[in-house]
């Protein structure tokens, strides 16, 4: 099954203050575990304006990494996901890049990621 780059619909209402996990497609492969290594394709957009800030799709290749090296929203939002699945994570600033734009360009922003799990 080859998925195409997802579109993320503009958000409505106020930004959530907690991590929101939504399974768009439930996979049937191996399950991602906390602290494990994963291979994903993803798109990230700003919750407020819907502007894309990052996409592995646009680089033309998936990316692999250990979960424990990522932002908290990914560390908590990916475990339990199964290979072949697509999950939407809406991540408040405290679980992303912090509350200050002085420390990171995405600081203070609520972020939305659509993640396709390719391998776990």
UniProtKB/TrEMBL annotation:
Alphabetically ordered keywords of this record: Isomerase, Rotamase
Q: InterPro entries annotated for this entry?
A: PPIase_dom_sf (IPR046357), PPIase_FKBP_dom (IPR001179)
Q: Which residues form the PPIase FKBP-type domain?
A: 35-120
Recall the GO molecular function terms of this protein's record. peptidyl-prolyl cis-trans isomerase activity
PROSITE patterns given in the database record: FKBP_PPIASE
E.C. numbers: 5.2.1.8
Species lineage:
Bacteria, Bacillati, Actinomycetota, Actinomycetes, Mycobacteriales
User: To which protein family does this belong?
Assistant: Belongs to the FKBP-type PPIase family.
Q: Which PANTHER family match?
A: 39 KDA FK506-BINDING NUCLEAR PROTEIN, FKBP-TYPE PEPTIDYL-PROLYL CIS-TRANS ISOMERASE FKPA
One Pfam family here:
FKBP_C
Q: What class of enzyme is it?
A: isomerase
Recorded source organism is Dietzia timorensis
Protein name from the UniProt record? Peptidyl-prolyl cis-trans isomerase
Quickly give the catalysed reaction.
[protein]-peptidylproline (omega=180) = [protein]-peptidylproline (omega=0)
